[in-house]
Amino acid sequence: MHGAGKSDAELRAACDARVGLIVVDGIEELERLARLARDTGARVNAILRLNVGIEARTHAFVRTGGDDTKFGIHPRDETAAIAILQEHPGLFFAGVHAHLGSQIFQRDAYVAHARALVEAAARFAAAGLNAQRIVVGGGFGVGTHPNAESLDIPATLGAMLEVLRAGAREHRFPVPLLGIEPGRAIVARAGTTLYRVLAVKRQSERIFVIVDGGIAENPRPALYGARHHVVAGRLHSTATEPMTLCGRSCENDELGTVALPTDIRSGDLLAMYATGAYTYSMAGNYNRFPRPAVVGVAGGSQRLLARRESLDDVLRNDVEPVESDRARAAF
Questions:
Q1: How many domains does the chain have?
Q2: How far apart are the C-alpha atoms of 108 and 105, rounded to whole Å?
Q3: Residue 15 catalytic?
Q4: Which domain does 230 fall in, by range?
Q5: 0.70 surpassed by pTM
Q6: What is the three-class DSSP state of 303?
Q7: Residue 59 pLDDT more than 50?
Q8: Domain shared by 102 and 148, yes or no
């Protein structure tokens, strides 16, 4: 269970459901979890998310390590964390965790990250708390264009594992498991988003292609400049030119500048590659647009995985107007 801010109800639910690992993201959270374990008699497997100060080259909005981030326990609070763990037998110290961010392509950043986590594990081991695992997070860079560079994950993991083993030998604590969180690396290229062109507008400086989506179901381009390869779904003129792909919301929700056929027109389908990660999971009803369907395709067959939302779905939480003054007063 992850989260930079967990409510008491969420922590209690995690304990009641015997969640395998609760990733503790702060000292105050660790204190609350300790009280919960004491009051309920639960045994809680806690892994501490640390801020080990390592940064990687990626967009600031998806950088989750370094000195300027909300995530993790600061080194100054490690002594307090050790004391809480030692004082509460219901808390089991499972190890340490840190995360660099998303779309990281530098192996050296991961190696430095692993080394910093090993040093942190050594400090806990010196207090009698041996980490069962060291979780280095994920964020492994995945190219979103054909033939684009991706991080060599096996080589990166091998380098981090060597750091872990060498550190355990040097500091004389048992070699822990190396944990990773490889979400994007598994699912990014498994997803393709299909858009229908609604309008093509040749304005003074640019050509704008407006599609039946945008910031509602794919907020990442607007949030931190995510860009994807886009191709047309029918045979077109071989001539292309740069066009600005936009959604249909009430902002300039640009999805990127892409090379599209010069004869692109409304009704055409466009396919956006490598949207399997952080697209549908981030979709909402911005501007009250319904979310699209999700369809699984394999071996020439297809299966509906999530149905398309209707207008009734979007409006289901709206309340009918209240007519009487007495009813208004009740609210």
A1: 2
A2: 9
A3: no
A4: 191-309
A5: yes
A6: strand
A7: no
A8: yes
Q: Are residues 110 and 258 in the same domain?
A: no
Question: Which CATH number do you get for residue 297?
Answer: 2.40.37.10
In terms of Cα–Cα distance, which of 158, 152, 55 is closest to 105?
A: 152
* Structure tokens, 47: 């892994």
* Phi (first) and psi of residue 65, to 5 degrees: -125, 170
Same-domain status, 107 and 143 = yes
- What stretches of 62-187 adopt beta strand conformation (E)? 91-97, 133-138, 177-181
Residue type for position 193:
T
Distance CA 168, CA 174 (A): 6
Handedness of CA 113, 118, 124, 126 (dihedral sign): negative
Task: Write out pLDDT tens, residues 194-251.
Answer: 999 999 999 999 999 999 999 999 998 888 888 899 999 887 778 999 999 999 998 8
Closest to 110 measured CA to CA, from 141, 144, 72, 87: 141
Q: Is residue 279 part of a domain?
A: yes
Identify residue 54 by its one-letter amino acid code: I
Give the whole-angstrom CA distance, residue 245 versus residue 256.
Answer: 6
Q: Which of 187, 203, 233 delimits the end of a domain?
A: 187
Cβ neighbours, 10 Å, residue 89: 11
User: By the 8 A CB rule, do 111 and 71 touch?
Assistant: no
From the candidates 17, 250, 329, 330, give the one annotated as an active-site residue: 250
Q: Are 22 and 14 in contact (CB under 8 A)?
A: yes
Q: Using one digit for the tens of pLDDT, what is the confidence trace for 70-108? A: 889 999 999 999 999 999 999 999 999 999 888 888 899
Q: Note whether 250 and 152 are same-domain residues.
A: no
- Domain assignment present for residue 319? The answer is no
Q: Are residues 156 and 21 in the same domain?
A: yes
